[in-house]
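Entry 14. Ran structure prediction on the chain below.
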Amino acid sequence: MRLTARAISFIKKNKILFLVILIAIILRFVGLMPNILHADESYVQDHSWDLVKNFIVSRDINPHTFKYGTLMFYFQTIGAFPVLVGTYLLEIANTLVSSTFTAKWLRFDLFYGEAIRKYVIPLVTVGRAETAFFGVASVIVVYLIGKKMFNKRVGIISALFLAIAPLHTRDSHYITTDVLSVLTILLAFLSFLYLYKTKKLKWFITSGILMGISVTVRYYPIAIFAYLSAILYSFEKQKKWFRNILISFFFVLVGVFIGLPFLFLDSQGPKLFISDLQKYALPWYSTPITNYIFSIFVSIISKGKESLPSIHLLYSMPHSFRPVHASWIFFNAYGILPTILAIFAMFTLAIKSFKKFILLASIPLINFFYISYLIPATYERLIIPTLPFLAIFTAICLENLYLFLKEHWSKKTTKIAFLVSILLVSILPFSKALEASITCSQETIQNQSYDWVNKSIPENVNIGYLTMVSIPPKKFGWVALEPGQKLSLEEAMIRKNDYAFINASRLDYNTYNYFNSFFIPPDKIFENSYYSLVISEYESRAKVLGRVQKPWMCDVSRIYYYQLPQLAKEATKLIKNFNFDSSKDLESWHITIPDNSGKANINLTSATGKQKNGSLIYFQDSFAYTAPRIASNNQKISPNKTYTFSFWSKVDKNSDDQSPTVIARIDFYSSIKPTGLEKFKQVLKNTILLVKEGPTPMYFEKKRQQTLIFDDIDLPGKMLAFSSLTKLNSKWQKISITTKAPEGVDFAIFSIQPISTQKDTINIDDITFATQ
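Output, structure tokens:
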């Protein structure tokens, strides 16, 4: 009763804080199931569940892996233990009740395999609930940090913005190490504040332990900079300060022992640790710094048999900044307005209180620049340690706003304006976090796809599909479409498919380079890239039957269903022919370069030709992203008429893996210029879409779906068609595309587009435009 009364009293005194925690709980616990299986969940699940079996059967509590810190496996084991042991005891009780007492005793190791299959849903649910709990606990700790460093209002606002941070919300739904790692970092940081403010020995000890533990969850010592800053700021001209530092450093090792006990207790632990780091961590996260530290550890373990590399290894730092993490933070992981306010608060805090700035900014800034400059892998999850501290900086900015309003306005007006400001800043990230939680609570895209296909597609048809599309047991002819070959609409039609099901999420793996390298990829570069063209062609030439999609924050986010048109017969009525026997033919062609990272040009050559001397020769430098197009001048066409564009091409080298791949492409446009109002509406719609989706492939796909104006000839037309991919060799090959012009267009651009971005020289001859 006393405990209940205290809880009620606490809630009454902290209504707003309780509401923030409630929001955090709802956002993190809604959608735990039947959410998709995260790629990293299986490993943690299998080893954690095995720990239950190993403990009961042989009293073995060693997870025998160092892919992740031992605490992660232990926490998951604690959750799985009551599920597996409880069902085991029920099974025994059921056996005793339903059979004689002489029945053979059920061994747990024999029961275990069947139990995993039978009770996988409650096991996964409990495991994910643990991560959700860690996420909510992180929100509470951020409140304590904000309150300790500033005041209660800053603490509550900090907690609110972490509670609604979309990426932190999403990753609180999975059995992964990221959220637990952030919680340990935050707990360590809170202890650093107490160390800095009180200078007491107990906080030197606590800080050391928590610092050590925070390193072990994901082997990421990002908190060390704040730890050393807190120690430095606690400086006293007394011997006990130096003693306390040494004690604290010792307890860092104690914390490492708590997080990785079998690194010390198992004689094979160090070797397994090195092996697992080489297998799982270093291929993805290695940098000159981590490689050198790893080499030191290997040298110590081998007792000097493995020599240290040169110190110059540390100087071989990459110098290219990848803006992808900044883009994720700004648009999807945290939010546009909260990020702007956080950056502004960093500058103001650096001016007002540099010590607090160093303490608070060291973790997010070092993490951000480390992952943006050094780590080769680009994952959204790498941003997560930055988010709690951005939340505190956002709160600082809003606190400054409150103090400013308080000086100039009445108390009532200040409160109203302040609440409205918080609402405006928080509404977008909250909506994204809520959207992710709700949609992840729905059936997976694959299951939705299964149901849609089962209801919507008749039997005895041929379907081309891009991988990870669930297939119902109906009489279909299935043809696999593959990225890089046999994927485009023309290729699907040539293979006699009636329908095409495109898992556009699968194509995202082929477009990472564009989003890693730009804050927002330029339209010309991305929309002219091959995989973007594939989707645009399906959208413009095929009949869209349906779309099953979830927000970008979900893993498999969208599958598109198309009914394919029939292959058009090649047109034979010649409109124009270019055999490049004279310079006049060259005047009708030009180079369109979407990507300024290289150069390209075209010239006439008299040395080679398809039938006689004279052809077009194309030179291309290496391009970082999208190769240029050899484009015709505007060619007048008529709607609903069929057109064929063809050319012959070769390279002066034998076919091999380095030979260029090209397509013939037709884009249809309208010469009717839109009004200023129409352009403004289109820009406004695209801006709103960008804010909602962020710069992602889904944004570009939806942008095309809502576009009504197709007047920019540097971008794909209202309808585009292109040929199958053709790898060139030393023999002349004919490449052609035939399609019907849509309504509402009056001119076309015919172009030859290399898909390869390496340095190439291509010969082209006998280009023809024809109609029926």
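The radius of gyration is 31 Å. Will compare against last week's run tomorrow.
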